[in-house]
Design brief:
This protein is α/β, with parallel strands linked by helices. The protein has helices at residues 3-8, 13-22, 165-173, 212-220, 237-247, 267-273, 308-326, 379-384, 410-413, and strands at 29-33, 46-47, 57-58, 62-65, 79-87, 101-105, 117-120, 124-127, 130-133, 143-144, 155-157, 178-182, 185-191, 196-197, 208-209, 225-229, 252-256, 277-280, 285-286, 292-296, 299-304, 337-341, 352-362, 365-370, 387-391, 403-408. The protein is built from nine helices and 26 strands. The mean pLDDT is 96. The structure holds adenosine monophosphate and magnesium ion.
Length: 417
């Protein structure tokens, strides 16, 4: 499809997604303090440069022994060994285990040379420096050998991994205090609408409080984005051009509202005036049909319809995967999964319906309940949803218990692996 053709038609969700992802440019690499890396993507494969544990050590508090010295130990005839000394975790010098003696060791303490087993403290009786062993032990018991967790040269994490809190332990243990990550995206947000007032203002007649830019800002902050929320712009061509001119100085610009075909929708003509190339502007999704996607130089422009549920659904389904691709993540989206619908849903559409829904597990099944209000204006619907049901275009009405595809919302579950 050339640009001309794409412009003429209404794209399917899948087509729009392929085009949007095809325009993603992967960010440059930067080195970041590992403590600030959670949620961001690794820009290089990480390989272990050190063995872990770095030295043979004890897995328990106990006594280091040579296992064959305890071979004949029984309750009736315990083997008694003299405790030579105590090795604590962090002790610097290495000692040797002599014949006929044992050495008390702490968990994590370096093993005396010649140790081949450690007997747990709880399994012996100690009198002064005499330690009674009433059971034999096995070779290797309670020993943690150097490199058993990971060895130098082992692959640690592949490029594209989304860093999780558990990875921080790995990075710390390997001394990887600076990690190669993809750099942040600079994103501007602009909301349009003469009717909009700030949340701290009591709306006058015909006015409403502005919600979308706050929603988008918070959603963007769950990804590695530096976000600037620009002032609202009223619906007139001149003001829109003026503000957009500023707003286009970013890796991507998200615009809310004003992108449809109404008398007071000035976003498209203003973008055109500024030389922004339209790639497409309509997608067969409900809610969210009038989605504009365009480009000026390296800046991508997403024009999202102003109804809050449309803004939200399009962000989750199309903008977030785009951002994650630019940010180098291997996992672009939370995979959809199957769940049973808790009630009939009669509405059918020639567009893909993305129903705000509540997904839960009960009696061995995953269930999903569409929230009551599916109108694209509904702010309550997005506040109460934890997932989106995908109802393919042209589907028959859904019946209770029928399996549907559901995408859990990443921000509700922290589901990126
Ligand atoms: P539009 O896409 O500009 O035609 O707006 C569609 C609907 O969404 C209208 O009812 C607007 O008042 C409403 N709307 C637009 N922008 C916002 C916003 N930033 N916050 C809340 N509602 C909005
Ligand atoms: Mg508007």
């Amino acid at each position: 499809m050339d640009v001309q053709q794409i412009n003429q038609i209404m794209l399917t969700y899948e087509e729009a997604k392929v085009i949007i992802l095809g325009h993603a440019c992967i960010q440059e690499l930067e080195k970041v303090d590992f403590r600030n890396s959670v949620g961001r993507a690794l820009a290089e494969d990480l390989v272990a440069s050190e063995d872990l544990p770095p030295f043979d050590n004890s897995a328990v508090d106990g006594y280091a022994v040579k296992f064959n010295e305890l071979a004949k130990a029984t309750k009736e005839n315990p083997v008694v060994l003299k405790c030579q000394e105590y090795v604590f975790a962090g002790r610097l010098d290495t000692i040797s285990l002599q014949e006929g003696v044992c050495v008390q060791v702490a968990t994590g303490a370096p093993l005396p040379l010649g140790t081949d087993a450690v007997v747990m403290l709880e399994q012996v009786v100690r009198n002064g420096d005499q330690v009674c062993f009433s059971h034999p032990t096995q070779i290797g018991n309670n020993l943690r050998h150097r490199g058993r967790d990971m060895s130098s040269g082992d692959s640690l994490l592949p490029k594209g991994t989304t860093i999780a809190p558990t990875h921080l332990a790995l990075l710390a243990a390997q001394g990887l205090v600076e990690v190669p990550l993809y750099s942040r995206l600079k994103i501007n947000i602009l909301s349009t609408g003469t009717e909009l007032v700030a949340p701290n203002i009591k709306p006058g007649p015909g006015q409403i409080r502005e919600a979308n830019s706050f929603l988008l800002e918070a959603l963007l902050q769950t990804e590695a984005c530096e976000v600037t929320r620009l002032h609202r712009v009223v619906d007139d061509l001149e003001s829109t051009i003026k503000v957009l001119n500023e707003a286009l100085r970013a890796d991507a610009l998200l615009i809310s509202g004003g992108v449809s075909v109404g008398e007071s929708d000035f976003v498209k003509p203003a973008l055109k005036e500024l030389g922004v190339k339209e790639i497409f502007w309509r997608v067969k999704i409900k809610p969210g049909k009038p989605l504009f996607f365009g480009q000026l130089g390296d800046t991508k422009v997403f024009g999202l319809p102003g109804n809050p549920a449309s803004t939200f659904v399009l962000f989750e389904e199309l903008v977030r995967p785009y951002l994650r691709k630019c940010l180098g993540h291997y996992q672009l989206e939370v995979p959809t999964r199957s769940a049973k619908i808790t009630e009939d849903f009669d509405e059918t559409s020639e567009r893909l319906q993305l129903l705000r829904a509540h997904w839960y597990h009960q009696n061995g099944n995953d269930w999903v309940r569409p929230v009551t209000q599916q109108g694209s204006f509904s702010i309550a619907s997005i506040a109460h949803a934890n997932s989106l049901i995908h109802v393919p275009e042209g589907s028959q009405p859904l019946r209770f218990g029928q399996s549907v595809r559901v995408r859990p919302l990443a921000h509700r579950f922290a589901l990126f692996g």
